[in-house]
Every structure is written in structure tokens, then in C-alpha cells.
Amino acid sequence: MKKTILKISDEEAALRSEVIRGAWLQAQHLTDRQKDDIQKILATQFYYTWCVDTVQPTAECYADNFEIFIMGTYVPMSPKDYSDIVLATSCNSVNSHMTHNEVCYFIDDDNAILLSKLNDSLTYKDNYEDFEGFGYYMNYYTRCADGVWRISKMRDTWMKAHGLVRGVEYMFEGTVDVPEN
Fold it and tell me: By C-alpha distance, which of 180, 165, 151 is closest to 43?
């Protein structure tokens, strides 16, 4: 199986560190409303990963102004187009898409960043090839007009991968392959 170490830009690494430190400082003085909002944000994140695993549309998890950055690069597409890509990958594979060790940083009362560690594992049904990736989600959340927290910006960053995800091979350009032992 191909093993890859992915290059993380200095900008992505600095942004991640800033969010972690900011969340730590804010956590010392959270209001009751922020504590409640964190649970709602986590519920949306969990619902998103559940949709990926169970081959359900993910579009309702995204705000109308949704943007996605993959490995630090903006990829222009609508919430529905991204949901369709996620569904196409999920339909042909068995998934375990997990986020954990989340920290939440509030930008203001209606915007926050949730930084999550990512472990993504899938096996393709047609040839049993595996993919396993490790990295981070840095998802920006917005409280929408209906009061629901939705993802307004998704920053996916894989740091290490075993195998390739079909349809997004471009994400692995400029990476470092690890020699087989």
C-alpha cells in the first residue's frame, strides 16, 4: 500500500497553532451560552461524519456561504457539489470517518472555529483497496438565521496517508512517498 507524508504549509501550521492557543485561553472563561453553543457545534460535526459513514447527503451541514480548502488550497464548489463528491466516494466504500480531540475557538457570538483531529479509513467495495488518512479538520462554523450552527468553511489537512482517495488524487501532488520496508 502506498504510504505518503503530506506537506503542510507554514500558514496552515501557524493557523492551527493560533486556534489551539486561542481556544485554550477562551476555555478559561466560557459563558454558559458558549458552553451550550460548543455542544451544538459538536453535534453538527458529529452529524457530518455520520452522514459520510452512512452514505447520506451532507449539504444540510453547510452554510450558504460554504467554502472548502483542501491541503490549504481553495477548491471552488457549492455545498451540493461537495456533498455529491462525498456521496460518490462513500457509495463505493465502507467508511469510518472520525474526528476527535476537538477544540472550539469563538471568533464572535455567531462564528467559531472547531479544530478536530481526523482519522479517515475506507475500503473500496469493488477491489478492496484501503485508504487511511490522518490529519485535521479546521471547520469554521456560523450560526445561521434558523439558529443552527453550520459549516461555513472547511479546511481539510491530511498529514499522513496510506493509499489514495479516488477522485481527489490531486491532493497528493508534491507529497513525499515513504519507501516500503
Answer: 151
Confirm if 175 and 5 have CB atoms less than 8 A apart: yes
What the block records as the C-alpha cell of 38 is 460548543
- Give the residue from 89, 91, 86 showing the smallest Cα distance to 75: 86
pTM for this model (two decimals): 0.86
Grid coordinates belonging to 47: 452529524
Instruction: Tell me the residue type at 38.
Output: I
Positive or negative, the CA dihedral 75, 172, 55, 16 is negative
For cell 477491489, the residue is 127
Q: What is the pLDDT of residues 47-79, one digit of tens each?
A: 999 988 888 889 999 999 999 988 778 888 888
Cα(84)–Cα(12) distance, rounded to whole angstroms?
A: 26
Q: Which residues have C-beta within 8 Å of that of residue 14, sequence separation ≥ 6?
A: none
Got the DSSP string for the chain?
--EEEPPPPHHHHHHHHHHHHHHHHHHTT--HHHHHHHHHHHHHHHHHHHHHHTT---GGGEEEEEEEEETTEEE---HHHHHHHHHHHHHTEEEEEEEEEEEEEEEETTEEEEEEEEEEEEEETTT--EEEEEEEEEEEEEE-TTS-EEEEEEEEEEEEEES--TT-GGGGTT-EEPPP-
